[in-house]
User: What shape does this take?
Amino acid sequence: DLMRGAGMDIPAGLSASDMSTNRFIDYTIGLPGGAETTVALAGVCPSTVVIQTDWFPESEHGGMYQMVGDDYVIDGDQQTTTGSLMASGVDTGVDIQVRAGGPAIGFQNTVAQMYTDTDITLAYADTDSIAFFWDDAPVIQVVTPLDKNPQMIMWDPEVYPDIHTIADLGDAGVTINVFGGGTFMEWFLASGLLSADQVDPSYDGSPARFIAEGNIAQQGYASSEPYDYKNKFTEFGKDVRLELIHDAGFEVYKSALAVRADEIDEMAPCLEKLVPIVQQAQVDFMADPARTNAIIVEAVETIGSYWSYAPGKAEWSTQFQADGGLVSNGPNGAIGDFIDERTNGVLDLMRGAGMDIPAGLSASDMSTNRFIDYTIGMPAG
Assistant: This one.
């Protein structure tokens, strides 16, 4: 119309529908959605948002460290990383402190730690742990950066070329070395997937027995140990084969962020803004992890404990999390949400295995999508 109004010589009947089409556009593909539109957290969130993780800094925690600004300070003694809380590069007006877990908190479960230390705003919490602690320390999951639990069982495929699953290990009677007391192992035994005489609960985290004996299976994290056994433990120096606990049928939400149950309504104004920022931080981290992985590696070096974390491992782990579906959108197309049927399925499995959890406890008690922004997810395609 502007061109015709200016007297330009163009065909009289020509219109937009002749010249362009959206026939081939995929409307699920676009730039990440916008935590940046609601980033101001001052006045609705604590002046320092404290996040309690479940282990030393590692790339599985990348979304948390993604939110740490360039003014960060790492306290090796306290095993914390503190800085301005950033939302896609925009200062939210409050600080964030990411705390190491595991030995940093005396190996206490993070759910219990939330009630020991009320300075914690959110803590990592697993479906099974929430169920076990519900009567004394109830918490509610509000966002899950990981869609699949990284825990796995691994074995040497050169020794067992025909074994591809945990069920195969059970059928073959292969010894499986694990930490004692794992919920998933209780279910494996109760379900008949494995037999008690093949499970050895003496694993102490050392690679020595797996490498020396060669013919055993071992628990671990799919986003961690395979790198070490190929690149760090040179006396082994090859790929392992594995199956995720999730893919074997025990589908807990692992390392989801949770709040104390009696504080969720009080915290709602904060969570309405913070949860979408966490979602976007996870998306941003997976898209460009280099800066955040460097912070994670620096934090591990500053802590200076027995745990080590090489830059190459951080890079590999992040890629595996993407390729292995550990970080992915849920069935609703958003990152970080919970599916009630999945959680209720885990509770049913736990009860069926004779585990002591509250009779009336259900997914709607333990997790919520109330604060999830369904426009934020991993890019499609």
User: Anything to note?
Assistant: The two ends are 37 Å apart (CA to CA). Residues 33-37 have pLDDT under 50 and may be disordered. The chain is about 35% helix and 15% strand.
